[in-house]
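As agreed, record copied across for absentees:
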Amino acid sequence: MIGFVVASAIVTWIASHYTLADYRTVVTPAFVAPIVALRTWAFTFCFLSIGLTTRFKLLAGAGGKPLAAFTVGIVVNVVIGYLLSVHVFVSYWAALGR
């Protein structure tokens, strides 16, 4: 969260020195475009790392029902995430095949 606030403040400060037309022609290609790939990877790693903090040994020690509920929750999240990814990023996925 702190990184987002700092990045937002930096971009806001940089953008405040340009008109909208100059921002679109100068700042976006030179400054914002390279950050997009970094943002995408950071977002992906953020979601991948959520599962890394799960302690299955403690969860299994709680009994079968909590473990089953956790597993069902993960499966539902993966299916919904996949369907949303296909729907939202359809143009991106289609462009990869070209």
